[in-house]
Amino acid sequence: MGFFEKLKQGLGKTKESFGEKVNGVFSSFRKVDEELLENLEEALIMSDIGMDTSLNIIGKLRDRIKRENIQDEEEVKKALREIMKEILDIDASGLSLNTTPSVILVVGVNGVGKTTSIGKIANRLRESGKKVVVAAADTFRAAAVEQLEIWAKRANVDIVKKEEGADPASVVFDAIKYAKEQNADVLICDTAGRLHNKQYLMDELSKIDKVIEKELPEASKETLLVIDGTTGQNAIMQVKAFKETVNITGLILTKLDGTAKGGVVIGIVAENKIPVRFIGVGEQIDDMQEFSAEDFLQAII
Prior knowledge:
Elements: H1 3-10, H2 12-27, H3 34-45, H4 51-68, H5 73-88, E1 102-107, H6 114-127, E2 132-137, H7 144-155, E3 158-160, H8 168-181, E4 186-191, H9 199-215, E5 221-228, H10 233-243, E6 250-254, H11 264-272, E7 276-280, E8 288-290, H12 293-300
Parallel strand pairs: 1-4, 1-5, 2-3, 2-4, 5-6, 6-7
Antiparallel strand pairs: 7-8
Helix pairs in contact: 1-12, 2-3, 3-4, 4-5, 6-7, 8-9, 10-11
């Protein structure tokens, strides 16, 4: 099965919820008027996109309908899809991994699928010909290192680890040294699942950042925040909270195959101006791909 088919299948629940709400408005369509726009607005709000983003989308759609004198249902739907695509395509240039090594720091709260995402991304990068090292800098959670080790083995990449409770920044320091020695292309660092209100965890993240800045001052660096797609509107708040402490360069959206709340992706990007880099729609090692706004929208509408 190609990834687009997997994506369509994985986003089935969102398509049922989001697509049916939107398509339901169009199926009762009589003419392009204010009533149609109000019904569309309600459908978007009910689809976890969020109030502000929904109002913004419909405002743009209203302007476009007037400007282009759109009267046809398919043209309205096409315009709606294009407006959403503009939101999601804020930076379609992909990951910046231009140095040897480049660094990917992966952050997020517990239970969102950080470790799994690291394994899947490491696998993708290795398959594309890059030499990858992962750093097990989540030394707080019991079995976190063992879990990452299993994924590193599956992805066939090297891992740098220490005992449980070790200083996470020292793990990253050792991993940078190892990545340099091995001439690795990419170093991916796992971090402890943290809540934005746990100051000591946020301080530790800042310490890890300082180690990277000191040891690899010229390196390309991405900080990816992992978000659980099943959390809906809470995900938007999570991104805002993390942004206050960390310079987030991209998002990884997981568990979209288990939720009807995939519409939240549009709200997250619109409100935070951070691009989605990867999307996960399954448990297998190849069930994560680089995010494509076109494919995503095609799959849900």
